[in-house]
Specification:
The complex is a heterodimer of chains A (113) and B (116).
Chain A lengths: L3 E3 L4 E4 L4 E7 L4 E9 L6 E6 L3 E5 L2 E6 L4 E6 L8 E9 L8 E2 L3 E6 L1
Parallel strand pairs in A: 2-11
Antiparallel strand pairs in A: 1-3, 3-8, 4-5, 4-9, 6-7, 7-8, 9-10, 9-11
Chain B lengths: L3 E4 L2 E4 L5 E7 L6 E7 L5 E8 L5 E2 L8 E7 L2 E6 L8 E8 L8 E2 L3 E5 L1
Parallel strand pairs in B: 2-11
Antiparallel strand pairs in B: 1-3, 3-8, 4-5, 4-9, 5-6, 7-8, 9-10, 9-11
Classes of the chains: A mainly beta (113), B mainly beta (116).
């Protein structure tokens, strides 16, 4: 079993739709959770960063963490064609000085005008 | 803030040559830099972690003599692919993290390497 599972998609939605992207994980030591957006042939861009259960909102983006279920989500409201990209979840533990980040495989999202 | 640059953005080289990729943190001091490799439709694969002034820590299966990493300053790390072969062709991405352990990584734009 992979430490982080993420549906690769592709996920196609019409413009304006609410998008839900999800990851599950198995390592209970993970304490910090990130979502990155990666456009084709570009480096990942940090979207959201959280370390507590619950919701964190930033503009059209909401990150949700449920540590009891080992499940994280990213919601995108009023999706735009410019949101078309691959979304990577990432997480790491807190302990130690060397904190390796584990990434999901990414979900490819296409927002259709 | 938290901008990371990479140079070059793409490079084509002949088999057997060496290629150096630079990663710079432009507006913060990066105590730790990471080098990743990404294959098409695959997740990021961590190659090595480097802390300023010390030797890099390589992940299992990554040849340290093939992928030389130098982190000489708080704003610059380099990855040198020595004696490159076609199977080294890939997308190489660096990331950097500041001194606070709770800070996350910020990624560079990546370097596409094609070895002929």
């Amino acid at each position: 079993q992979k430490e982080v599972e993420q549906d690769p998609g592709p996920l196609s939605v019409p413009e304006g739709a609410i998008v839900s992207l999800n990851c599950t994980y198995s390592n209970s030591a993970f304490q910090y959770f990130m979502w990155y957006r990666q456009y084709s042939r570009k480096g990942p861009e940090l979207l959201m960063y959280t370390y507590s259960s619950g919701n964190k909102e930033d503009g059209r983006f909401t990150a949700q963490v449920d540590k009891s279920s080992k499940y994280i989500s990213l919601f995108i409201r009023d999706s735009q064609p410019s949101d078309s990209a691959t979304y990577l979840c990432a997480m790491r533990s807190r302990s130690g000085g060397y904190q390796k980040v584990t990434f999901g495989t990414g979900t490819k999202l296409q927002v259709i005008p | 803030g938290a901008v990371v640059s990479q140079h070059p953005s793409r490079v084509i080289c002949k088999s057997g040559t060496s290629v150096k990729i630079e990663c710079r943190s432009l507006d913060f001091q990066a105590t730790t830099m990471f080098w990743y490799r990404q294959f098409p439709k695959k997740s990021l694969m961590l190659m090595a972690t480097s802390n300023e002034g010390s030797k890099a820590t390589y992940e299992q299966g990554v040849e340290k003599d093939k992928f030389l990493i130098n982190h000489a300053s708080l704003t610059l790390s380099t990855l040198t692919v020595t004696s490159a072969h076609p199977e080294d062709s890939s997308f190489y991405i660096c990331s950097a993290r500041g001194w606070q352990l709770t800070e996350t990584q910020y990624f560079g734009p990546g370097t596409r390497l094609l070895v002929l």
